Amino acid sequence: MKPVKIAMMGMTHGHTRKYYQTLLDNKKLDWIASCAQDEDAKKTYELYQTGVPCYLDPEEMYEKHPDIEAVVIASANDRHFEQMKWCAEKGIHILSMKIPTFDMAEYDAMIEMCDKAGIVCQIELEMHYNSVVRRLKKLIADGAIGKIKSFQATNITLSPVWAFPWQGDPKASFGKVEKRWIDTTDGKKMLTWVILPPDFDPTKK
Length: 205
Fold this sequence. Notes:
- The chain is α/β, with parallel strands linked by helices.
- Helix content is about 30%, strand content about 20%.
- It contains 7 helices and 8 strands.
- A 6-stranded parallel sheet has the order 3-2-1-4-5-6, sandwiched between helices.
- Helix 2 (about 40-45) links the parallel strand 2 and strand 3 (about 55).
- Helix 4 (about 80-90) packs parallel to helix 5 (about 105-115).
- The longest helix is centred in the middle third of the chain and has 14 residues, at about 105-115.
- It is globular, with a radius of gyration of 19 Å.
- The model has no long low-confidence stretch (mean pLDDT about 85).
């Protein structure tokens, strides 16, 4: 099978830089282009010296690389819909960073346009494949731990807050950001930040 010709868009998500080595080393992929959200993102990208050309306009990128078959969408949450739409219109497959959107109507529109275009759209969520999560899902399926309403799997990011400021921006992240102090098991306080969906209703359970 020939390598898939792949590109990246946005270059502002926390997982972006982790993909560089994978795209370069994976023999099943041929990384041919990137498109940065702005000059700052492009300058940061160029520090890594990937040798892959980077553009600021997706149309220019596509004009120079019309053979792009798939795109990694690595941008702020509020840019995902427009970038998915751009890919769908060109018949380009998608690997999108989480979260695609917190707006369920927009989510339905994403699914519809990808189905209509006949493209693959996968959401990057490494916890799907985490061994602990897989074990927990099996225990639930087997009824070994009783009836479970829901569970939440999380991982810990090492990214400093200033590195990806859009994540704390309610508009860019598609949610209201709340600061919360929680009590830890050793009697200390831990600062956390909670991002709530736009339609979050605290009165509902």
